[in-house]
Design a protein that fits this description.
alpha/beta; nine-stranded mixed beta sheet; three-stranded antiparallel beta sheet; 17 helices; HemN_C; 4 iron, 4 sulfur cluster binding; iron-sulfur
Length: 381
């Protein structure tokens, strides 16, 4: 029986780099995009031998902005995947897109080629905030993209929002979500703004924390978000993700459940057979060696049992369902309570963790300080 596999395909191109973004992406030329697609096809086809073990159930086009590629280029990538890998009967195939980069004709092409989930990078419903973030689209263009996507046959659409923007109040955030949920969506991701070094936002706000919402405001925003979205039919299933019933991102769940995934393209990360590795971020190196991934893989690390246990906990506890004692024992042959007695006792007693039947999960308060809680499940802490 073939093993389950997910594919992540990185498209590092944008129309414009956003002011807060530190992802591997840049403004590109038509020639760069075409050269890259050809390289991706060659990389994919180099995995024929590897692919014999697997059946692909999820594919995720991330970036960057994958929708800057032409429909024909995207189809060529998927054709290469289908030529090399056996696909599940009904795989989840997600494509990230930004409003204004997916016209009606292209969306129709996406559906015909088997893409069945869109993740739209909205970030805010207010045009003044979009301008602040360095986005090049408007909220009206987002609504137009959703309308076209429905007409093209998409019934699984997700939108990304960023909270805790400079000067943002709880009331302003409430208005954002109330407006957004007037649009039919199946999934919403909400990420708190992080000021990353090297970005335009860091130059602007890195040393001016007084311009950002304080910790209490950010806390109120987070707690209100979960309660409000639940009232609108979205159940939180991970720290930053909310979905209607049966509409969770299957691909993203595999990251938190430590299922195998193969990263394709520049800078893409993989986790296969408990080996973590990433592709080079060096354009020249990737393009010259695209037919031989061994020549551009970096940071290859086999995860010993202690690291696997750590990941089981700090990735699994990101889910609202938390982790299963039974799954831990089946994976490692040891009882979770014996391996993590100290950390579990500490956080069950202080209320950061809760337990129900077989499962252990973060409490509401624990979610607010999740990084501190999860750090206690690292053996070198």
């Amino acid at each position: 029986m073939k093993k389950d596999l997910g594919l992540y395909i990185h498209i590092p191109f944008c129309i414009k780099k956003c002011d807060y973004c530190d992802f591997l992406s840049w403004k590109s030329t038509e020639k760069e995009r075409e050269d890259y697609v050809r390289a991706l096809e060659k990389e994919i086809k180099s995995y024929r031998e590897f692919a014999r073990e697997y059946r692909v159930s999820t594919v995720f086009f991330g970036g960057g902005t994958p929708s800057v590629l032409t429909g024909e280029q995207t189809e060529r990538i998927l054709d290469a995947v289908r030529e090399v890998f056996q696909m599940e009967k009904e795989p989840e195939i997600t494509l990230e897109m930004n409003p204004g980069t997916g016209e009606m004709e292209k969306l129709v092409q996406y559906r015909k080629m088997g893409i069945n989930r869109l993740s739209i990078g909205l970030q805010s419903v207010k045009n003044e905030n979009l301008k602040l973030l360095g986005r090049i689209h408007t909220y009206e263009e987002f609504l137009e993209s959703c309308k076209w996507a429905r007409e093209a046959g998409f019934d699984n659409i997700s939108a990304d929002l960023i909270s805790s923007l400079p000067g943002q109040t709880l009331d302003e955030w409430k208005e954002e979500l109330e407006i957004l949920t007037e649009t039919l969506l199946e999934h919403i991701s909400v990420y708190q703004l992080i000021i990353e070094e090297g970005t335009e936002f860091y130059k602007r706000y890195g040393h001016r924390e007084e311009l950002l919402p304080d910790e209490e405001t950010s806390r109120e925003i987070y707690l209100w978000t979960g309660k409000f979205l639940e009232s609108r039919g979205f159940k939180q299933y991970e720290i930053s993700n909310y979905a209607r019933p049966s509409r969770q991102s299957r691909h993203n769940l595999r990251y938190w459940e430590r299922k195998d995934y193969l990263g394709l393209g520049l800078g893409a990360a993989s986790m296969v057979h408990n080996i973590r590795m990433s592709n080079t971020r060096d354009w020249k190196k990737y393009m010259e060696n695209c037919e031989n991934p061994k020549k551009f893989r970096e940071d290859v690390e086999f995860l010993e049992i202690p690291r696997q246990m750590e990941e089981f906990m700090f990735l699994g506890l990101r889910k609202t369902r938390g982790v299963s004692r039974r799954d831990f024992r089946q994976s490692f042959g040891r009882d979770l309570e014996l391996v993590y007695e100290k950390a579990l006792n500490k956080h069950l007693e202080n209320g950061m963790l809760k337990t129900s039947g077989d499962r252990i999960y973060l409490s509401e308060e624990g979610t607010l300080v999740s990084n501190q809680v999860l750090a206690d499940f690292l053996f070198d802490c």
